[in-house]
């Protein structure tokens, strides 16, 4: 039996026992060793079963004692279906909706469920401030000079060190800093592509990437995507002859929060390399895993330098700092040239501050806390949605990241919901933003990066009521 | 008689009297009123004569007393000819030289005559540091959040206020902040152009713009340019049917340091508007005038919103801050969309700091001092070049900015000079970088933004000796 399938099956079995109440809250689970024996699987497969269940918030690990059914009942709503976009490359202008929703960004009067970013309340503001002051003092000429084109070497070194955690084994010289991850992706696309090329992406996918691709004159081929395991490999295989570039967010992508299994990553990297199709990997959410371990990246399996791995601290530390980077593999020299052309260099002070922050253990502490908060938020959101949203509402089951994907029944158009909600000072991201095609009209993305509170719960309730009013008006 | 011609003629007459010794150092010049009477010209024309002479460092103004022949003899070398590029649109890859020279950027072991930026020694480092600390404290959430897409409103307001000084009369809402001026120009090109378009530029021109244009799939038409008055209007008129966009640096452009007379600016703005050709104006050096008054911009004459005015603080305050902006006229909405796509937002902390610095009088004080230093540097450079460089060396007469253009006789190839100089830890910018065509091989640009010292003089002497060695080897 396929390994992949096997561990999913075992995990699903245990999950079922938990949700049906056969296994009680707080009850101890069998050991990894016992699971191996019972199911005749390898240690690795057994471990993955537990990681999977932990990622779903169904179990907790206790050091030295093993795994236990989560004390907190994990509330779940039905999962949306695998997306089924038309397998045609589109190059039409993205929906106007994107610009409309993004102008809400930075508007302090709104509850911004629409923007995928952690709230400032969840960030280590005082420590970051200290780093900025120190960097301004420590840098030659106060950081006013042009920085080296490749970017702050301390920052690159810290990113390289951290890459060991996901099997990246990068060297500082393989990295180039950028003004945030979007800038990294933009530089990558200009490096490996040319107008007229077709890019394969997940569907639904991040609206900014759609806009970027179209503005650079590319066509976009959206591919079927599973709400928990991400891009469907079979569809990618079929699409190979039609595509020039592949752009994926394998770890906790927005809006689905899906996480591609390592086996899939490996297979995709090999498939694309064998066809000389560059893979741009956007890994901005990789550090925000809900499970026990950070997932690997496609870059972890890259032997040919064919993967351009992009990330940033925008989703974990400070969206407004615009500190990102890319490990462009064999495309480094070309990408450096493009960076020089479009922005000359990055902001020294901010890069130095982030480098110093990463150097201490504080970043790990902060991430641990942030992950726990996001996971709790996810549970609170889903429970509230179950309580107040129209019957039949489905949600994704993110295994990390900042996004929750909500699917209403077909009668509820989320563009209409946006218009109603904004009047109540609530901003959401309607599903139509996440595609160039006519799909996801009944979906929306909610950011779970806002600190949970009575007010947030109230705003979700309001959203639910508005959705119900649309549903009943259209009967 | 044409006004333009008239004031040039009167100024040239007085200049001649000064350089030939008829008017002695320190001698008082006739008053503005007397000049009006003698030459039967308007007050405005008479004033412009004095401004012109002051810009050429030939005379000084003393408050309440009038104008005097400069105490310091203005040393001059012959002026290079008007450039004569082939009037064919090129889309070949820019010379490899550009990348080679730019990798020297940030290398602390080199004397960087090659990079057009003020040395940190000439910048108000302590005050800037203070502003950064204050901004980090004052900003909501320490500036970690995404900034509003259009950029920091205080910064935009200050730029608008300052625009009154050059007849811009901008409103904060007409401005968009960017990551430096190159990023502004890049956004402008993506906003108004499409691959295959032809852009008219000055020749020689800034290498980064050439790279940018080619990388975006444009063709470049280089136009004849006068070393002191800039772009030749007749050539632009002839080129109109062939071009889609015009990109100029009218004030103290690099590498020539020329300044386009206001009449030319007005004429060009009207000409381009009547043919619906957008004008991207890069005004990064505008505040670095050596004369008495800041020159106007093309934007000052823009009635149709057809001029996209770009600038930054990279040449005046802090290259490494990457704070720039654009007033995109009627293209604002499109440009905002492009900004969102490629970089989402700018760095809040740095923008806030610069805004606060501009708000105080300190910026004006700093600029006054910086201008004086640059003007003195220019004199020192030219004198040293006259002393140590091969006979027949010509130099531009910048009326502002950071660049000095040096033209050797044809036997001296500055690419060879670069290779020899870099071994002595001196980096220069060979002329071939500033064109897509086969020209300027015997030219180079020197940055005059390094503080004058015995060492700098020594490095220039070394350069001169190397140039002589090339000349004699090729006889």
Describe the structure.
The structure is a homodimer of 475-residue chains. With 475 residues, chain A is α/β, with parallel strands linked by helices. Chain A folds into 3 domains: 3-69, Arc Repressor Mutant, subunit A (Orthogonal Bundle); 97-121 and 364-473, Aspartate Aminotransferase, domain 1, CATH 3.90.1150; 126-362, Aspartate Aminotransferase, domain 2 (3-Layer(aba) Sandwich). Chain A is built from 15 helices and 17 strands. The first copy, chain A, has helices at residues 3-19, 32-39, 43-55, 97-102, 125-138, 153-163, 181-192, 207-215, 233-239, 262-274, 332-343, 348-359, 362-388, 414-423, 454-473; strands spanning 59-62, 66-69, 111-112, 176-178, 198-202, 219-223, 225-226, 230-231, 245-248, 279-282, 307-312, 324-327, 394-395, 403-407, 426-427, 429-430, 443-447. The radius of gyration of chain A is 22 Å and the shape is globular. Chain A starts with a helix and ends with a helix. Chains A and B meet through helix 5, helix 7, helix 8, helix 11 and helix 12 of A and helix 5, helix 7, helix 8, helix 11 and helix 12 of B.
């Amino acid at each position: 039996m396929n390994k992949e399938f096997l561990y999913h099956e075992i995990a699903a079995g245990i999950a079922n026992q938990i949700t049906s109440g056969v296994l009680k809250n707080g009850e101890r689970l069998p050991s990894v060793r016992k699971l191996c024996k019972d199911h005749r699987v390898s240690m690795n497969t057994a471990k993955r079963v537990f990681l999977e269940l932990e990622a779903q918030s169904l179990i907790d690990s206790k050091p030295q004692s093993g795994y236990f059914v989560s004390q907190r009942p994990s509330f779940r709503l039905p999962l949306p279906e695998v997306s089924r976009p038309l397998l045609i490359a589109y190059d039409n202008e993205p929906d106007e909706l994107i610009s409309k929703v993004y102008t809400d960004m930075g508007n302090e009067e709104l509850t911004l469920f629409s923007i995928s970013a952690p709230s400032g309340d969840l960030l280590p503001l005082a420590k970051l401030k200290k780093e900025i002051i120190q960097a301004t003092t420590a840098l030659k000429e106060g950081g006013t000079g042009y920085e080296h084109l490749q970017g702050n070497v301390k920052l690159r070194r810290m990113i390289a060190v951290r890459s060991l955690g996901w099997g990246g084994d990068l060297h500082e010289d393989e990295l180039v800093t950028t003004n945030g991850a979007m800038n990294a992706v933009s530089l990558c696309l200009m490096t490996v592509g040319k107008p007229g090329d077709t890019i394969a992406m997940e569907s639904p996918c991040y609206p900014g990437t759609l806009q970027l691709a179209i503005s650079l004159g590319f066509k976009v081929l959206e591919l079927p995507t599973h709400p928990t395991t991400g891009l469907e490999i079979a569809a990618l295989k079929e699409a190979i002859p039609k595509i020039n570039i592949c752009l994926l967010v394998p770890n906790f992508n927005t809006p689905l929060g899906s996480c591609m299994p390592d086996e899939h990553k490996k297979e995709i990297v090999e498939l694309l390399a064998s066809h000389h199709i560059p893979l741009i990997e956007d890994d901005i959410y990789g550090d925000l895993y809900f499970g026990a371990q950070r997932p690997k990246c496609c870059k972890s399996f890259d032997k040919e330098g064919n993967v351009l791995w992009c990330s940033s601290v925008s989703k974990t530390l400070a969206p407004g700092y615009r500190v990102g980077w890319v490990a462009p593999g064999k495309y480094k020299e070309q990408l450096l040239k493009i960076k020089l052309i479009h922005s000359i260099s990055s902001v020294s002070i901010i890069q130095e501050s982030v480098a110093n922050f990463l150097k201490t253990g504080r970043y790990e502490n902060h991430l641990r806390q942030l992950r726990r908060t996001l996971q709790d938020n996810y549970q609170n959101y889903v429970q509230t949605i179950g309580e107040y949203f129209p019957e039949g509402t489905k949600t994704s089951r993110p295994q990390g990241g900042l996004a929750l994907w909500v699917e209403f029944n077909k009668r509820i158009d989320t563009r209409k919901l946006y218009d109603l909600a904004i009047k109540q000072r609530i901003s959401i991201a309607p599903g139509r933003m996440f595609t160039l095609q006519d799909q996801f009209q009944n979906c929306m993305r909610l950011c779970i990066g806002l600190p949970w509170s009575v007010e947030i719960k109230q705003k979700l309730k309001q959203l639910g009521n508005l959705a119900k009013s649309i549903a009943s008006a259209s009967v």
